[in-house]
C-alpha cells in the first residue's frame, strides 16, 4: 500500500495577531466566555520561549513555593513554640488542657498546607486538635504516663522510632504520639505505621489518617523519611499484641523492613521501651485458628473479654512508662547503606531488638 | 519546531481550554479541533481569525467511518497535522449503547484513534490524557503510585474504570513504536473554577452527586484543569515518551471535595452499596457504570509526579481553593500561585 501523500498547504501563512482585548478575567466569570481576554497563564507559557528539550527558566517557577518537592536540605519542621499563638478552645475538654500543650498541637499545622489543610496522607490539624484533649486526658489521668529520654528524639530530620507492642488495642502508640508531641521542641508528630488491615475498617481508617497515622506500604515509609518526618514502627507486628500474659515483655522477632528504610534514608533509629502496655489487656489465650478464619489479627480471651462484650477490650488503667533510648545511627557503619545484604539487615534488626529488650528489662 | 496539532473532544471543558492555550502558544502553527457537538462559542474568534490557524470539525470519534473520513480528509492534509492530543470524554455522561463491538465509547475511540495515528505516517506524536484511577488500590488512604505501580486488572472493577484501564493499556502497548511517539499522562482528579469536577468515579453519574460508603472518606489528589492543559502542551512539545503521573498540590478528602463543589453527598452502608450496584446491574443488563462501594470510594491515593517534573519539566502552578463569587457564595477556584 502506498503511503498517503500530502498535498501542499493551500492556506496562506499570515503572522499571528495577538488578541486586542487585554482585560483580565473577572473573578467569578465563565472562563470559557468568548468575551474574556487572553488567558494570562497561556501568555506566560508562550513568553517563556521554552524550547525542547525543556529547561524551564527560573521565571517559570516564580512565585511558587519551593517546599512542594521535599528536598533533604529543606526538611520542614514546626515553628518555635514562641511563635505559635494560643487559640480559643473549640471543645469543652480543651479548656482543661494546658495552653502550652495546645500550642504544641497547633504548631503541627505546618504538616498541612493550603486551604485544604490536609497533608497528602490525610492528616488534619483541625481533627487532631479536637482529638488531642482526649489523648492528653488519657496520658495524664488514665495511664499516668511517665517518660524519660526525650533528648534522644532528633529535633529535625528523619528518624525511625521503634518500640515494643502489646495490649491488643494500640493505646501504646497513642501514648507515644501524645508524649512526643508534648515533650519535644519543636513539637514533632510521630507517624505511626499501621497494619494494612486497619485501612479496611470503617471510621477507624479515617480516624487514623486524620491523626497522622499511615498504612505501612514501602512507598509510604520511604516518602515519610524522605520528607524528614518521624516514623513510629512496631517491628513485632501483630504478633506482639496477641502474645499471652505468660510471654509478657518477651519480644517477638523483629521484622527487617524498618532497618532497610532507616538505612536507605540515613535515618537514626530511636529505640523505645513501653512498660505497662502488656498489662492493659492481659491475653489469657488466643484462638489463632478462629482468628485466621475470621480474618482478624486475634481472637483473645482476657479477664474481661468476651465477658463484657466489646467493652472488655478497653484497656485497664495501668501506669505507663516510656523510655527513649539513645539513637542508633546504623547507616554510619556502611559506606553504601543501600547495598546491605539481607543477612546483615537481619543482624541489625536483631541488634535493635536486643537494645529494646534491654531497655524493657532495665526499667520494669 | 512548530507543530500542527489535532485535538479530540475539543468541545469538552478540558479540550476547550486546551485549544485556547494552543492558540496562544508560539510553538503551535495550526490546530484542528474535533468534537462530537457544534463548535463552542468560545471558538468563534479563533475560527473567525484571518490567519485561519484553527478549524473545527464535528466527528464521532467512536465511529469507524467518521474517523476514517477525518484521517483521509483534505482538511487534515492541508493542516499538515503531525501531532495529536487525545482528550478523552470526561465528566458525567449519559449511558449509551456500545459503539464498537460491545466496547465502551471511550475504548472504541481510543482504538480507532490509535489505529489511525499508527497508520498515518505524517503523525509523529500522540499525547493522551488518562486517569490515575487505573491503579490498583489497597486498603487505606495512603496508596502512593508511581508510573510502575500495578494497574487494577481485577474482574470486579466498575465499567467506567475498566474503560479507562483498557484505554491505558491500548496506548501503553504503542509506547515503543518506532515512528509514533506516545506520551500518556495519568491525571489525578481534575477540578475547574466554578466547582467542576472531572475524571473522578465518585462524581461520575448524571446527578453528579458524590457517592461513598459510610465510614470511608478517601483522599483525592486534585489538579487544576489549567495545569492539565499545561502538562498536555508540554508533552506535545517534549522529546520524551512514556507514562507520566500528573497531579496538583492539594489533596482533600472526598467529603471536602463534595462540599467545595456544592454537590450532594450520598453515604450509604457498604453492604447496601453492593446490593444496589448488583440490582442496577441486573436491571440494566450490563455492568453498572460506576460501582457503588468500590475501592475508589473507600481508599485514596497520591501520585508520585517526580518523573513528570524531571523529564517533562511539569510542575503544577495552580492552587486550588475557594473564593467568593459575585453573589457572595464560596465556590471552588483555581488560581496561579
Model description:
The complex is a heterodimer of chains A (364) and B (337). Helices cover 29% and strands 9% of the residues of chain A. Chain A starts with 39 loop residues before the first helix and ends with a helix. Chain A contains ten helices and nine strands. In chain A, strands 1-9-6-2-5-3-4 form a seven-stranded mixed β-sheet, sandwiched between helices. A two-stranded antiparallel ribbon of chain A has the order 7-8. The N terminus of chain A is likely disordered. In chain A, α5 links the parallel β3 and β4. With 364 residues, chain A is of the alpha/beta class. Chain A has a domain of 184 residues: Glycerol-3-phosphate (1)-acyltransferase (3-Layer(aba) Sandwich). Chain A is globular and about 50 Å long. The longest helix of chain A is centred in the last third of the chain and has 22 residues. Chain B has 337 residues and is an alpha/beta fold. Chain B has one domain: NAD(P)-binding Rossmann-like Domain (Rossmann fold, 3-Layer(aba) Sandwich), CATH 3.40.50.720. Chain B contains ten helices and 17 strands. Chain B has a seven-stranded parallel β-sheet with strand order 3-2-1-4-5-7-12, with helices on both faces. In chain B, strands 9-8-11-13 form a four-stranded mixed β-sheet. Chain B has a two-stranded parallel sheet with strand order 6-15. In chain B, β4, α5 and β5 form a beta-alpha-beta unit. In chain B, α1 crosses α7 and α5 packs parallel to α6. The longest helix of chain B is centred in the first third of the chain and has 15 residues. The model of chain B has no long low-confidence stretch (mean pLDDT 86). The chains are: A alpha/beta (364), B alpha/beta (337). Chains A and B meet through α1, α5, β4 and α6 of A and α1, α4, β6, α7 and β13 of B.
Radius of gyration of chain A equals: 27 Å
Oligomer: heterodimer
Strand arrangement within the widest β-sheet of chain B reads: 3-2-1-4-5-7-12
Decide which structural class fits the backbone of chain A: alpha/beta
Major pleated sheet of chain A: 7 strands, mixed
Extended strand count of chain B: 17
Reading the helices and strands of chain B in chain order gives EHEHEHHEHEEHEEEEEHEEHEHEHEE
| C-alpha-based Rg of chain B, rounded | 19 Å
Number of strands of chain A: 9
Amino acid at each position: 500500500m502506498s503511503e498517503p501523500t500530502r498535498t501542499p498547504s493551500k492556506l496562506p501563512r499570515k503572522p499571528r495577531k495577538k488578541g486586542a482585548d487585554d482585560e483580565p478575567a473577572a473573578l467569578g466569570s465563565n472562563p470559557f466566555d468568548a468575551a474574556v481576554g487572553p488567558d494570562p497563564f497561556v501568555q506566560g507559557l508562550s513568553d517563556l520561549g521554552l524550547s525542547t528539550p525543556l529547561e524551564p527558566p527560573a521565571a517559570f517557577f516564580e512565585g511558587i513555593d519551593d517546599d512542594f518537592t521535599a528536598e533533604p536540605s529543606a526538611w520542614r519542621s514546626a515553628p518555635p513554640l514562641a511563635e505559635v499563638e494560643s487559640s480559643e478552645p473549640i471543645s469543652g475538654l480543651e479548656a482543661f488542657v494546658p495552653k502550652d500543650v495546645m500550642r504544641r498541637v497547633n504548631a503541627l499545622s505546618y504538616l498541612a498546607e493550603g486551604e485544604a489543610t490536609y497533608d497528602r496522607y490525610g492528616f488534619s490539624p483541625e481533627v487532631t486538635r479536637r482529638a488531642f484533649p482526649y489523648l492528653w486526658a488519657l496520658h495524664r489521668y488514665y495511664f499516668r504516663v511517665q517518660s524519660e529520654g526525650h533528648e534522644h528524639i532528633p529535633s529535625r530530620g528523619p528518624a525511625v522510632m521503634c518500640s515494643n507492642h502489646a495490649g491488643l488495642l494500640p493505646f501504646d502508640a497513642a501514648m507515644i504520639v501524645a508524649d512526643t508531641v508534648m515533650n519535644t521542641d519543636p513539637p514533632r508528630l510521630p507517624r505511626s505505621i499501621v497494619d494494612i488491615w486497619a485501612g479496611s475498617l470503617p471510621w477507624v481508617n479515617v480516624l487514623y489518617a486524620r491523626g497522622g497515622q499511615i498504612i505501612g506500604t514501602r512507598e509510604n515509609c520511604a516518602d515519610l523519611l524522605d520528607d524528614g518526618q518521624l516514623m513510629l514502627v512496631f517491628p513485632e507486628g501483630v504478633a506482639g499484641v496477641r502474645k499471652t500474659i505468660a510471654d509478657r515483655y518477651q519480644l517477638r522477632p523483629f521484622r527487617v523492613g524498618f532497618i532497610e528504610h532507616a538505612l536507605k534514608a540515613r535515618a537514626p533509629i530511636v529505640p523505645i521501651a513501653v512498660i505497662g502496655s502488656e498489662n492493659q489487656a492481659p491475653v489469657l489465650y488466643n484462638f489463632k485458628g478462629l482468628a485466621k478464619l475470621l480474618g482478624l489479627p486475634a481472637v483473645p480471651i482476657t479477664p474481661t473479654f468476651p465477658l463484657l462484650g466489646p467493652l472488655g477490650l478497653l484497656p485497664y488503667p495501668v501506669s505507663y512508662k516510656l523510655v527513649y533510648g539513645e539513637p542508633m545511627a546504623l547507616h554510619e557503619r556502611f559506606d553504601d547503606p543501600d547495598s546491605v545484604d539481607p543477612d546483615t539487615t537481619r543482624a541489625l534488626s536483631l541488634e535493635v531488638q536486643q537494645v529494646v529488650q534491654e531497655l524493657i528489662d532495665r526499667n520494669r | 519546531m512548530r507543530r500542527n496539532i489535532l485535538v479530540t473532544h475539543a468541545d469538552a471543558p478540558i479540550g476547550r481550554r486546551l485549544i485556547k492555550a494552543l492558540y496562544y502558544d508560539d510553538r503551535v502553527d495550526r490546530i484542528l479541533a474535533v468534537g462530537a457537538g457544534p463548535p463552542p462559542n468560545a471558538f468563534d474568534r479563533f475560527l473567525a481569525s484571518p490567519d485561519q490557524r484553527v478549524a473545527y470539525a464535528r466527528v464521532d470519534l467512536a465511529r469507524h467511518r467518521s474517523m476514517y473520513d477525518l484521517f483521509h480528509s483534505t482538511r487534515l492534509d492541508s493542516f499538515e497535522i503531525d501531532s495529536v492530543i487525545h482528550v478523552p470524554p470526561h465528566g458525567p455522561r449519559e449511558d449509551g449503547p456500545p459503539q464498537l463491538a460491545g466496547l465502551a465509547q471511550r475504548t472504541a475511540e481510543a482504538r480507532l484513534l490509535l489505529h489511525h495515528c499508527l497508520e498515518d505516517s505524517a503523525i509523529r506524536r500522540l499525547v493522551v490524557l488518562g486517569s490515575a484511577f487505573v491503579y490498583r488500590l489497597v486498603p487505606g488512604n495512603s496508596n502512593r503510585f508511581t508510573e510502575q505501580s500495578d494497574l487494577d486488572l481485577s474482574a470486579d472493577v466498575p465499567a467506567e474504570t475498566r474503560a479507562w484501564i483498557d484505554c491505558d493499556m491500548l496506548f501503553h502497548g504503542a509506547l515503543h513504536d518506532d515512528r509514533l511517539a506516545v506520551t500518556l499522562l495519568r491525571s489525578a482528579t481534575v477540578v475547574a473554577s466554578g466547582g467542576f469536577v472531572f475524571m473522578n468515579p465518585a462524581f461520575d453519574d448524571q446527578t453528579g452527586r458524590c457517592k461513598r460508603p459510610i465510614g470511608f472518606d478517601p483522599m483525592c489528589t486534585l489538579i487544576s484543569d489549567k495545569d492539565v492543559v499545561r502538562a498536555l502542551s508540554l508533552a506535545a512539545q517534549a522529546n520524551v515518551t512514556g507514562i507520566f503521573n500528573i497531579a496538583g498540590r492539594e489533596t482533600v478528602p472526598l467529603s471536602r471535595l463534595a462540599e467545595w463543589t456544592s454537590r450532594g453527598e450520598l453515604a450509604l452502608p457498604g453492604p447496601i452499596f453492593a446490593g444496589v450496584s448488583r440490582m442496577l446491574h441486573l436491571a440494566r443488563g450490563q455492568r453498572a457504570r460506576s460501582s457503588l462501594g468500590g475501592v475508589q470510594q473507600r481508599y485514596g491515593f497520591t501520585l508520585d509526579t517526580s518523573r513528570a517534573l524531571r523529564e517533562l519539566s511539569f510542575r503544577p502552578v495552580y492552587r486550588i481553593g475557594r473564593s467568593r463569587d459575585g453573589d457572595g457564595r464560596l465556590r471552588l477556584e483555581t488560581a496561579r500561585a
